[in-house]
Amino acid sequence: MIQLKTYLLTLVCTLFLFQANAQFQLSKESEVSVLTIGPGLVLNDAFGHSAIRIKDPGQRIDLVFDYGRYDFQAEGFYLNFVKGKLDYEIGWANYESFIANYKLQKRRVISQIINFTLEEKQKLFEALLTNIKSQNKSYSYDFFYNNCATKIKDALINASNKRILFLPPENFKSLTFRDLIRSNVPQNSWGGLGIDIALGSIIDRSASVEEHLFLPKYLYEILKVSKFNPKNIRLVVRSEVLNQIQKPKPGAFWWSPLIIFALASIIIIGLTYRDWISKSRNKFLDVLLFFTTGSIGLLILFLWFSTDHTATAYNYNFLWAFGFNLILLKTIFNDKVKKRFIGYIKFLILLLALMLLHSLTGVQSFNYTIIPLWIALLSRYGFLIYWFSLKKNQKNV
Which residue among 7, 92, 324, 350 is least crowded, i.e. fewest CB within 10 A of its CB? Predict the structure, then answer.
């Protein structure tokens, strides 16, 4: 009952503070800490989360501020998300309710106490109070450069009176942005496949130490060893585990992309072999392949050229998912085609060869689960060249 009264008193005082826009002075007992939350079970929680905690027992303040909040119910949410025009927000919560939520989700929470002076703590607190005002709380989201973790890095830099050196942790190995994503979302998952198909070769470059900070787990690892310059004082005083339990992600291998694509590839190659033996052609299969690859290719081109997403540019997944296949759906349904269409299918095989070359030379890393589909497309396109060439020769005879 006492805890409930304390909580309500803290909440009422905090609301009054925000509404009155008062200058609230932190005491010497105050602490600033960065909270790192482990990954959740759904895709939008797969990378974990970060937050800033302001605690002052003397003033009965214990608040958590976090960036990266969004409203699924907002008008045009999904369209704006796809177009890269979605605004995210900073929010706040009482610490007790904040930690209770993640305990309920069974997600690990670790606190890092920041070695700030009272002046720096006050500066950060006032900046956060300014940011949560309705006219300031929104910001343009960018997954790599302006997300829940990078905003905290920026907040620490702005509040510190000394330069912060973000140092690499022990046994640090610089990874590409794509590999950093894959460290949280495996390739052989539907989320990992979707990310790999949507994001272009622009993310296949090595990230600097500071650029690793877009992921909460690297924000934690790097802050742990970072220092102030030039005094060589550690940025983090100590770390505390606030919730130890981390719920493991359930495995779903039999429903994974690799299994599904492998089965689909076997079916495509099997039907192609039957067509070759029986000297017939399954038109439905060809229409399905052209429609599927064309639709995915159209989405890739849309993300590349018609959105504000910086990470979807120069996406060479269009080499296997070629958008122009949609235009030729009617042609692929015909029994006989013109010579230039045979040339088009040869061009599709050339694109598959270029995809292999891009992969081997490191231009872009492709999701390995599409290898079975790549093989199936290669075999089917080869059969179509044989089939239409045979029909053309029969016509000439």
Answer: 350
**Joined tokens for residue 376:** 């199936």
Contacts of 38 (CB under 8 A, 6+ apart): 48, 107, 108, 109, 246
SS3 35: strand
Structure tokens given for 216: 């909460």
Spatial distance between the Cα atoms of 224 and 236, rounded to a whole number of angstroms: 6
Q: Which domains does the chain have, with CATH numbers?
A: 2-172+209-243 (3.90.1720), 254-396 (no CATH)
Q: What gap in Å lies between CA 203 and CA 38, rounded to an integer?
A: 24
pLDDT digits (tens, 9 = 90+) for 158-197: 999 999 999 999 889 999 999 999 999 999 999 999 999 9
Question: Are the beta carbons of 209 and 168 closer than 8 angstroms?
Answer: yes
Whether residue 186 has a cis bond before it, omega within 30° of 0 = no
In this prediction, residue 392 carries a pLDDT of 63
Please give the Cα distance from 2 to 22 (Å, whole number).
Answer: 27
d(CA 247, CA 245): 6
Element (H, E) at 111: strand 109-114
Q: Is 385 helix (H, G, I), strand (E, B) or coil?
A: helix
User: What is the DSSP annotation of 68-101?
Assistant: EE--TTSTTHHHHHHHT--EEEEEEEEHHHHHHH
**Which residue has better confidence, 73 or 14?**
73
Nearby residues of 305 by Cβ (< 8 Å), 6 or more positions away: none
Helices (H) and strands (E) in the chain, counts: 13, 10
Query: 253: which residues sit within 8 A by CB, 6+ positions away?
Result: 188, 259
Q: What's the distance, Cα to Cα, between the start and end of the chain in Å?
A: 95
Residue 126's Cβ-side half-sphere holds a number of Cα atoms within 13 Å equal to: 13
DSSP 308: -
